[in-house]
Amino acid sequence: MTIAVLGAGAFGTALAVALARHGARVMLWARDADQVARMQADRMNARRLPGVSFPKPLEVTADLAATEAADIVLLAVPMQQTAGLLAAEARRLDGRALVACAKGIDLVSGRGPTAIIAETCPSALPAVLTGPSFAADIARGLPTALTLACADDARGAVLQAALATPVLRLYRSTDCTGAELGGALKNVIAIAAGVVIGAGLGDSARAALMTRGFAEMNRLALALGAQAETLAGLSGFGDLVLTCTSTQSRNFRFGHALGAGEAFDAATTVEGAATAKAVSVLAEKHRLDLPVAAMVAALVDNRISVPDAVSALLSRPLKKE
């Protein structure tokens, strides 16, 4: 079986390395020909995953046509680029298993990746791979557990068998909505958790923030048709814990920089920043009260200061939990 990974960021590269290391023929695609040439010469992605060598079964290409033989395609481009890639390459990608690996909500449509796949490539099998994971851990072969969601459970089981390795354990679900929303929404809360720590508010405040943030994740996900048990699993609660408590999380580091009043690398993709804006639109549409997400969106847009955001959250009326 041949697997194509579209997107040579840290996560896409890590998945390609992990799968190739365990015998799969893997093709890693990047649109930047210069980056591809460097990876081919170095046999590693020195920019995104320095020190991680490519296994022999891993091929790197800038030619998307070279991936047409792949039975399974992992979409590992950033969420805000996913719709554009699918629209541009629909004829090439349709009819295959398309597994979304980005975490977020499309700003233009307000939808998750599987809905975009279903509309753009109607003959494809949409699925989502998500959960608590850092690219460096996967690339190093450290034990990791993820959720693989596919509405067609029988075909999802085939994907599960093809993509699991002895150290990359996949748990199957049919709740694509819940899986992709858990992965998207936890990034917003991770930014808020980073703000809390960056502003020096302490671990107790972070724990409170995570708890209230998880309640918001459930509120929105259930309104959009997700199942509560999905949010309580790896793709929701599990991913929330990881990204709110580790400096390996870009979203947490971004929030920490906001809270501390420090600059952040503008070239680094922070999916939670765009997701916070999309969540604000969805909250208004569904008349939901999501104060943490709203404050994150305001902070990202520089519409409020960190002290004012903290004050606004702490001055909300007391209520039952």
Automatic annotation (TrEMBL):
Top-level EC class: oxidoreductase
InterPro entries for the chain: 6-PGluconate_DH-like_C_sf (IPR008927), 6PGD_dom2 (IPR013328), G3P_DH_NAD-dep (IPR006168), G3P_DH_NAD-dep_C (IPR006109), G3P_DH_NAD-dep_N (IPR011128), NAD(P)-bd_dom_sf (IPR036291)
EC number: 1.1.1.94
UniProt: sn-glycerol 3-phosphate binding residues: K103, G131, S133, K186, D239, S249, R250, N251
Localization per Swiss-Prot or TrEMBL: Cytoplasm
Residues forming coiled coils: none
Top-level division of the source organism's lineage: Bacteria
Principal location listed in the UniProt entry: cytoplasm
Catalytic activity, reaction form: sn-glycerol 3-phosphate + NADP(+) = dihydroxyacetone phosphate + NADPH + H(+); sn-glycerol 3-phosphate + NAD(+) = dihydroxyacetone phosphate + NADH + H(+)
Location of the Glycerol-3-phosphate dehydrogenase NAD-dependent N-terminal domain: 3-153
Pathway: Membrane lipid metabolism; glycerophospholipid metabolism
Domain Glycerol-3-phosphate dehydrogenase NAD-dependent C-terminal: 175-310
Active-site residues, record numbering mapped to chain: K186 (proton acceptor)
Keywords from the UniProt entry: Cytoplasm, Lipid biosynthesis, Lipid metabolism, NAD, NADP, Nucleotide-binding, Oxidoreductase, Phospholipid biosynthesis, Phospholipid metabolism
One Pfam family named in its UniProt record: NAD_Gly3P_dh_N
Hydrolase keyword on record: no
Residue numbers binding NADPH: F11, R31, K103, A135, R250, E271
HAMAP family: NAD_Glyc3P_dehydrog
Annotated function: Catalyzes the reduction of the glycolytic intermediate dihydroxyacetone phosphate (DHAP) to sn-glycerol 3-phosphate (G3P), the key precursor for phospholipid synthesis.
Family indicated by similarity: Belongs to the NAD-dependent glycerol-3-phosphate dehydrogenase family.
The protein's name in its UniProt record: Glycerol-3-phosphate dehydrogenase [NAD(P)+]
